[in-house]
């Protein structure tokens, strides 16, 4: 099996349209711990199975694949925009997709490539601006917990839409800008060390209504959001409650 590859996207006039350098630097500093379930990305490791359960159901519903099939993305191309060190890319590759992972932090791409090679997975990792990514359209485009970190949200969603095939599926997730998310995701989580200090800026969170407007402007139809909630008994889980975080599908209009 081919090793994972890492490529810098050549600079173009579109560079820095959506990347916030301070955000890339913040997450780049965490790259070495990204795959440690007890490290600075511990909450992502808890969140990942919840997101993957949703993604698998969305894939089966959209592409009409059997839920028992081990590789429902066989023969399809997938993009994870804002991939970090590959926590979503690797499961997508195991589901059969030819995966491209893109991130703003070169340190994350280095960590992702190294981990994928160790796992024997062939993933095409790129570092740079989404608008400058040269690639054929993707059947599946994912961007999870990323929109709140970009400089120009409309430009970013437009770029995501431009990478999606006409019959493809997009999956987005984002913290909701509510009092509850401010208390739990910013104040409590960062003070208690559940996520590193400075990870979240509450005023950058996007409400479902705002995301629907961004999607419509990009020529996308947004589905009905599903909440990602937290409770002491269940931990992180899918729910009707959208007040903390939510995940949603989109398609070309």
From TrEMBL:
<feature type="binding site">
    <location>
        <position position="103"/>
    </location>
    <ligand>
        <name>S-adenosyl-L-methionine</name>
    </ligand>
</feature>
<dbReference type="GO" id="GO:0102208">
    <property type="term" value="F:2-polyprenyl-6-hydroxyphenol methylase activity"/>
</dbReference>
<feature type="binding site">
    <location>
        <position position="51"/>
    </location>
    <ligand>
        <name>S-adenosyl-L-methionine</name>
    </ligand>
</feature>
<comment type="pathway">
    <text>Cofactor biosynthesis; ubiquinone biosynthesis.</text>
</comment>
<keyword id="KW-0808">Transferase</keyword>
<comment type="function">
    <text>O-methyltransferase that catalyzes the 2 O-methylation steps in the ubiquinone biosynthetic pathway.</text>
</comment>
<keyword id="KW-0949">S-adenosyl-L-methionine</keyword>
<dbReference type="GO" id="GO:0032259">
    <property type="term" value="P:methylation"/>
</dbReference>
<dbReference type="InterPro" id="IPR010233">
    <property type="entry name" value="UbiG_MeTrfase"/>
</dbReference>
<dbReference type="GO" id="GO:0010420">
    <property type="term" value="F:polyprenyldihydroxybenzoate methyltransferase activity"/>
</dbReference>
<feature type="binding site">
    <location>
        <position position="82"/>
    </location>
    <ligand>
        <name>S-adenosyl-L-methionine</name>
    </ligand>
</feature>
<feature type="binding site">
    <location>
        <position position="144"/>
    </location>
    <ligand>
        <name>S-adenosyl-L-methionine</name>
    </ligand>
</feature>
<dbReference type="GO" id="GO:0061542">
    <property type="term" value="F:3-demethylubiquinol 3-O-methyltransferase activity"/>
</dbReference>
<keyword id="KW-0831">Ubiquinone biosynthesis</keyword>
<protein>
    <recommendedName>
        <fullName>Ubiquinone biosynthesis O-methyltransferase</fullName>
        <ecNumber>2.1.1.222</ecNumber>
        <ecNumber>2.1.1.64</ecNumber>
    </recommendedName>
</protein>
<keyword id="KW-0489">Methyltransferase</keyword>
<dbReference type="InterPro" id="IPR029063">
    <property type="entry name" value="SAM-dependent_MTases_sf"/>
</dbReference>
<comment type="similarity">
    <text>Belongs to the methyltransferase superfamily. UbiG/COQ3 family.</text>
</comment>
<dbReference type="Pfam" id="PF13489">
    <property type="entry name" value="Methyltransf_23"/>
</dbReference>
């Amino acid at each position: 099996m081919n090793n994972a590859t890492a490529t810098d996207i050549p600079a173009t006039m579109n560079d820095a349209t959506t990347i916030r350098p301070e955000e890339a630097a913040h997450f780049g500093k965490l790259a070495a711990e990204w795959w440690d379930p007890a490290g600075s990305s511990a909450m992502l490791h808890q969140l990942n199975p919840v997101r993957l359960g949703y993604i698998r159901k969305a894939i089966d519903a959209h592409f009409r694949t059997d839920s028992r099939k081990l590789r429902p993305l066989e023969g399809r191309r997938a993009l994870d925009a804002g991939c970090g060190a590959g926590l979503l890319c690797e499961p997508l590759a195991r589901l059969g997709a030819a995966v491209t992972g893109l991130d703003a932090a070169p340190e994350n791409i280095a960590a992702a490539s190294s981990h994928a090679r160790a796992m024997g997975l062939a993933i095409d990792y790129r570092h740079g601006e989404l608008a400058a990514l040269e690639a054929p359209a993707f059947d599946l485009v994912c961007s999870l917990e990323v929109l709140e970190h970009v400089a120009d949200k409309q430009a970013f969603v437009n770029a995501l839409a431009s990478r999606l095939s006409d019959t493809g599926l997009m999956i987005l997730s984002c913290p909701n800008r509510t009092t509850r998310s401010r208390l739990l995701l910013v104040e409590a989580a960062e003070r208690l060390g559940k996520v590193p200090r400075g990870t979240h800026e509450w005023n950058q969170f996007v409400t479902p209504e705002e995301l629907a407007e961004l999607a419509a402007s990009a020529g996308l139809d947004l589905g009905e959001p599903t909440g990602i909630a937290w409770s002491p008994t269940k931990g992180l889980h899918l729910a009707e409650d959208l007040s903390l975080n939510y995940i949603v599908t989109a398609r070309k209009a």
